[in-house]
Every structure is written in structure tokens, then in C-alpha cells.
Design goal:
With 231 residues, this protein is mainly alpha-helical. The chain has 8 helices and 4 strands. Strand 1 and strand 2 form a beta hairpin. Helix 3 runs antiparallel to helix 4 and helix 3 packs across helix 8. The termini are far apart.
Length: 231
Amino acid sequence: MKCPGQDSRFWGQEAIFEAPCPKCGKTVEFFKDEPSRRCKHCGFKFVNPRMDFGCAAYCRFAEECLGVLSPELIAKRESFLKDRVAIEAKRRFGKNFKALSRAVKAARYAEGIFRQSRLDNPAVIIATYLYELPKQVGGESSGPEESVEEAIKLLEGIFPKRELIDEVASLILSQKKPHHELSSEEAVFADAIALAKFEEDLKEYKNLTPPELLTEAGKGIAIEILSRAKA
């Protein structure tokens, strides 16, 4: 079934319109479903000024429908996906509030590390929500092998890109690797998990020292956690 917004059977008179070329000012005719057109006068190609690409931020068939997405839309899509995963993870953890709390904190710390490093990788944030995913709603946290199976099932239902799903799975399984074998993304993931557990353990054991961390940003966050615990 074709999206009604893109199906010409539902179009009215406004479906075809004219827009000035940003480069030469000449008139260019657009159909409303065209992502872009090239000016016949100067050859400049520009984006359809009236097209609403909002659905591409969340629709899993956006690339099939619209073609190659802009960097802005890809960023929106990644942000939406992280939010969607967070909601699904919260549902799966149910009343297992400790595991849910660790997952939410780990995601927050991963974002904090990336922010300080001026880097980003949505797969790492997604993996922090899913690394303890239970086999059933409200069940007990699973080990890496079981969690990765559940994570793959969850992600396949909301996102079609196999590359990202495989990267999330690899990150979850990286918990079993020695620290010296971890990639930079895996190190951020490991630090985020360690920081979430450290914060949780500090509530019971006040004199804990920070765990062995792999990133400078992670070490700085550990100091902040300690300061908050002593305040």
C-alpha cells in the first residue's frame, strides 16, 4: 500500500507548483512529491521547498519512499530511534526497577562521554538500554548472549537497517572482551555500564573507589558521581 501523502490519486490542484531557483531566480516547476529538481536555466539542483519530510524521521520505509535522506533527517531518525528503544526497553523491564535504572543511567553516561568527546554513535546509546534485556516482560535481567538475542528481535521490529542492529549486538557481546581489545565505541559502552553500576553501588557502599575506566571523559564523570554522593 502506498502512503496516501505520496499517492497522486489523493492530490488536488496544489500538487503542482512553481518555485524560484535560489541561484538564478528563474521559475522551476515542482510536483509536490519530488524531493528535488534541477533548474533548466542554470542547472542548479535544489530541494522541494514545500515538501514535508517529517515522516522520514520515524518511518522505517523512508529511504524506499524518498531515496537518499539528508544528514538532518538522518539525525532526526537516529534521535527518534533512540527514544523508541528507550520506551520499548522500559516496557520490557517492567517492575525490574534496578535493571531499568542501570540502563537509563548507562545511556545518560554514554551520551555524556560522547558529548565531552564531541563524538556520537547511536548504536552505543541503544546498546546501553538493551544490554540487560530480559527474555520476557518484567523478567530478570539476562546475560549478554540472551540479551543480544532479545535486542535483535526488538530492533528488527522497529528498524530495517541490519548494519546498526549488528553493531548493537556486537557492543552487547563486547562485555566479555578484555579491556585492551575494546574499540573506542566499545570502551564508551563499557565505561557507561561501569559508571551506572558504580552510582548504584555507592548508595550501599559509601567508601567505594571508582572502577577502572577507559575514557578520560568517563573518569571525569566518576569524580562527579563521587562528589554528588559525598554532598
